[in-house]
Design goal:
With 143 residues, the chain is of the alpha/beta class. The chain has one domain: Rossmann fold (3-Layer(aba) Sandwich). The protein has six helices and five strands. It has a five-stranded parallel β-sheet with strand order 2-1-3-4-5, with helices on both faces. Strand 1, helix 1 and strand 2 form a beta-alpha-beta unit. The longest helix has 13 residues, at 13-25. The protein is globular, with a radius of gyration of 14 Å.
Length: 143
Amino acid sequence: MKVLIITGSRSDLEIAEKASGVLDELGIENEVHVASAHRNPERVDELVKEEADIFIAIAGLAAHLPGVLASKTLRPVIGVPVDAKLGGLDSLLSIVQMPSGVPVACVGIDNGKNAALLAAEILALRDERLTEKLEKYREGIKS
């Protein structure tokens, strides 16, 4: 099991690190890369061909990265909108308004942690040990 985390900009690496940290805690292999859908589309093309079960795409402003990835793969793509302008609403709307037939899951603005947890829940559908880890995680966050 592997999750590829891709940010559209180096300025988004803090969000990626939060996602990576959760995946590390759950024992899920992951890698973080920076590749802009606009400034380096060739790199995005290379990354989408890598062996990964799920992609987490972190992007602000026009936030095309999650949609571009989704258009190039049948593997799940989870978008994380970034609060770069307009409180992140521009990014959020860009990610959730994908055309019919090219779905992208979307978590809250700047919420890399939830993107990692959603990726883990998807992977847990075929991994009972991961399900147990997620159950322990949920138990640990109860107030």
